[in-house]
Amino acid sequence: EVQLQASGGGLVQAGGSLRLSCAASGFTFDDYAIGWFRQAPGKEREGVSCISNSDGTTYYADSVKGRFTIASDNAKNTVYLQMNSLKPEDTAVYYCAAVAPNQFVGLWVLWNRFYEYEYWGQGTQVTVSS
């Protein structure tokens, strides 16, 4: 059974930090890329960051570059999203998801397309107060 378990959300003041974790099981972790998405009330789901577990390549949305860092521990089948300098606009439910390699479209093209992802976790709430 495929599982993606997101955790680490919470309430933090603006300028603070949180670290999200995504623990994966039930599929070949090293073959997939893991992405983080977020969705705020009334807004579309937005790609935040992604890491390729095969070569470590990372991608970030412009809105989080320089503040968020994604990392993968392949031995633990876990991906982390370190979020620093948090802003109220970062408030959302954060989801992790897994996408398999696509021989026709590079990861740099599809990493932020939520419909390309095969497996999804349940989401964790991040709330940043001003």
Overview features:
4-stranded antiparallel β-sheet, mainly beta, 130 residues, 7-stranded mixed β-sheet
Written description of the protein model:
- With 130 residues, this protein is mostly beta strands.
- It has one helix and eleven strands.
- The chain has one helix at residues 107-110; strands at residues 3-7, 10-13, 18-25, 33-39, 46-52, 58-60, 68-73, 78-83, 92-99, 119-120, 124-129.
- The strands form two sheets. Strands 2, 4, 5, 6, 9, 10 and 11 form a seven-stranded mixed sheet that branches.
Q: Helicity level, as a percent range?
A: under 10%
Strand content: over 45%
Global outline: globular
Largest sheet: 7 strands, mixed
Question: What is the CA-based Rg, rounded?
Answer: 14 Å
Q: Can you count the helices? A: 1
Overall mean pLDDT: 96
Category from helices, strands and their pairing: mainly beta
User: Order of SSEs, N→C?
Assistant: EEEEEEEEEHEE
Unreliable stretches, pLDDT < 50, 5 or more residues?
none
Ends distance = 40 Å
Query: Based on DSSP secondary structure assignment, what is the total number of beta strands?
Result: 11
